[in-house]
Amino acid sequence: MKPTGTDPRILSLAAEVANSPEQNVPVILLRLKEIMNNTPLGSSELKKIKQDIYCYDLIQYCLLVLSQDCSRIQGGWTTISQLTQILSHCCVGLEPGEDAEEFYNELLPSAAENFLILGRRLQTCFINASKGEEKDALLHFFQIVTDSLFWLLGDHVQLIQNVLQSDHFLHLLQTDNVQIGSTVMTMLQSILQIKSGGLLRIEVKTLHSILDEVVFKLLSTTSPVIRSTATKLLLLMAESHQEILILLRLSACYKGLRSLLNKQEPGTEFTQELRQLIALLSPNVYQEVEEQKLHQAACLIQAYWKGFQTRKRLKKLPSAVITLQRSFRSKRTKMLLKLNRQKEEEDRRLQVQLQRQRAMRLSREIRLSRLEVVHPGQVEKHNREIEEKSALIIQKHWRGYRERKNFRQQRPSLTEYKAAVTLQRATLKFLAKCHKKKKLFAPWQGFRELTDARRVELKQQVDDYVRRHPSSEMSDVTSRELHSQAQKQLQHYFMGRALQERAQQHREALMAQISTNIEQLMKAPSLKEAEGKEPELFLSRSRPVAAKAKQAHLTTLKHIQAPWWKKLGEEAGDEMDVPKDELSVELGTLFIGGTKPP
Questions:
Q1: Which of 24, 81, 311, 363 has the largest count of CB atoms under 10 Å?
Q2: Distance, CA of 138 to CA of 129 (rounded, Å)
Q3: Which of 452, 530, 147, 477 is nearest to 539 (CA)?
Q4: pTM value?
Q5: Number of domains in the chain
């Protein structure tokens, strides 16, 4: 959207640029310099002119001209250098308005990049030039371009990071020419003085490249101008950023830098800066830098904590305001209540006064009425009785008032007395507790010294105990016999323990075998379902077991085959006696596992 009230000079210039051929556009744009020079600096008129220039796309025309080849532009490097000045002055102090995002994100980075490209072109032309006058002119144009770039960065510091990360800037810094190199390093020093924080926002690789180039120029070149500028630049970078100082101090890439700086020739113009740089790289200064870094970290933590506390208080501010309002309303209610009470007291006082006046009138009326009734000879007696009663009432009220006054005067002393009694009671309790704790936790101080009477008493007790419990004396032969008996009993015990262990192992083996057999019997199929040699697997290898099983089987058969009248006196669990001959006969036909048949 085109602004209203546009300067007619800008309007005519924009129309001329739009209608002119391409080769005449750069010369026409140079008239912008005259328009801005005729306007006072810092005035609102100059800001309006810059806005008009931006709105009519004259800044974009300047960028297009700067991106063209120098040989195709009328006036060559002179026109280009003047256009860079015009472009930087137009961008400084410009308020783009609605197109702010496009201006800051596209136009300004493009302008800075074009300045760096022009610097590289001028560097190439300066190196290839053979005449001295031509070199001086190209160097002058190069300084104009760098000054324009610095002027642009001074107002738009966000572009410093883009410039330092640019490959064109690194190529300009890596030049071997003394004049170009000193100009670029001077510009870098001025940029870091504007905003040194942009140096740490660039990539680590680019930062190392810049440091390597500055250190290389300081140590390898013989030009005092380059060495002085490199020393000042390196000193500024080390003083501004502790990270760079630590990098120069500890990195393996810069190992031995301090020793090489000490070998530099003394007596030069930059000896003072060189000494400062060497002092910064010393271990003591490094410790100071570490302490300063810790101090800054502590300050940062404190700042974050204070900010957190402030934000916390701000969050609580609404509740504090509510509390303040509540307390104000409460106080106002109390004041209103107090005023109402005072008003009620005044009303009550007035009512009491009126009642007293009424009572006084009534008493006077009663007195007059009594005087009319009383006999004239009895009036004096009556008056004297009334005066006595009145005196008694006055004395009674006066004594009450005096006692109440005395009590009010004695109340503070009585309160102090009660408080003193309470404090004394609490103090005595506390001292008693402390004394009790001291008794509990007091270290042992040893036995008390025994008196002669106590020694005699203890000796008498020892003698009585020895007399009641005489010790048994044993001869050497008796003790040896007792020792040999003890050894025999111990040997007998150990031999018996070995037999018991073997018997226990045998019992455990039998129990394991029995458990296995029981498990097999539990899992065995019935006799109807058994096939092949499965019944033979369950034959016992023990004769007693087989005999006991056979006996139980025969007993069960006889009990089943016996008549019913023989079973009347028997129970189901009673055992029956089986003749040994019958049992041996039956066992002869029984196969027992592990034995051969007869």
A1: 81
A2: 9
A3: 530
A4: 0.44
A5: 4
pLDDT at 15: 78
CA distances from 449 to 361, 443, 446, 453, 459 (A): 96, 17, 9, 12, 16
Phi and psi, residue 146, nearest 5°: -65, -35
- Residue 236 domain boundaries: 206-282
Cα separation, 255 vs 466, in Å, equals 90
The more confidently predicted of residues 511 and 238 is 511
Q: Do 162 and 138 share a domain, yes or no?
A: yes
Sign of the torsion angle spanned by Cα atoms 436, 440, 441, 442 = positive
Alpha-carbon span 172 to 113, nearest angstrom = 13
DSSP 8-state secondary structure symbol assigned to residue 26: H
> At residue 531, does pLDDT exceed 80?
no
Same domain, 349 and 388: no
What percent of the chain shows pLDDT beyond 70? 78
DSSP 309-362: HHHHHHHHHHHHHHHHHHHHHHHHHHHHHHHHHHHHHHHHHHHHHHHHHHHHHH
* Angle CA 422–424–425, to nearest 5: 65
Question: Does one domain contain both 155 and 54?
Answer: yes
* CA distance linking residue 581 with residue 243, whole number of Å: 113
**What's the mean per-residue pLDDT of the chain?**
77
CB distance 6 to 54 below 8 Å: no
Domain end, chosen from 168, 195, 222, is at: 195
Letter string b/e over residues 119-128, b meaning 16 or more CB atoms within 10 A of that residue's CB: bebbbebbee
Question: Does pLDDT of 246 surpass 70?
Answer: no
Token pair 């302008």 in the structure block, residue: 111
396: in domain: yes
Q: State the amino acid at position 350 in one-letter form.
A: L
Structure tokens at 127: 């190196």
Assign residue 73 the CATH number of its domain.
1.25.10
Let me know: does 30 contact 74? Beta carbons within 8 Å: no
Q: Quick one: DSSP state of residue 254?
A: G
Inter-residue long-range contacts of 16-22, CB under 8 Å, 24+ positions, other chains counted: 17/58, 17/61
CA distances from 295 to 286, 288, 289, 382 (A): 14, 10, 10, 102
Same domain, 13 and 152: yes
Query: For residue 319, which of 327, 331, 330 has the smallest C-alpha distance?
Result: 327
Same domain, 6 and 81: yes
**Same domain, residue pair 102 and 189:** yes
What count of Cα atoms within 13 Å lies in the side-chain half-sphere of residue 278?
14
- Contact between 120 and 168 (Cβ < 8 Å): yes
Do 180 and 265 reside in the same domain of the chain? no
Q: Which residues contact 203 (CB under 8 A, 6 or more apart)?
A: 165
Q: Look at residue 442 and tell me if it is in a domain.
A: no
Distance CA 186, CA 180 (A): 10
Please report whether residue 544 resides in a domain: no
Q: Which residue has the higher pLDDT, 91 or 433?
A: 433
- Helices H, strands E: what count in the chain? 24, 0
Both 358 and 397 in one domain: the answer is no
Is residue 212 a part of any domain in this protein? yes
In eight-state DSSP terms, residue 5 is S
The pLDDT tens digits of the residues spanning 115-155 come to: 778 777 877 787 777 777 777 787 787 778 888 777 777 77
Final residue in a domain of this structure, among 360, 386, 412: 412
Contact 196, 190 (CB under 8 A): no
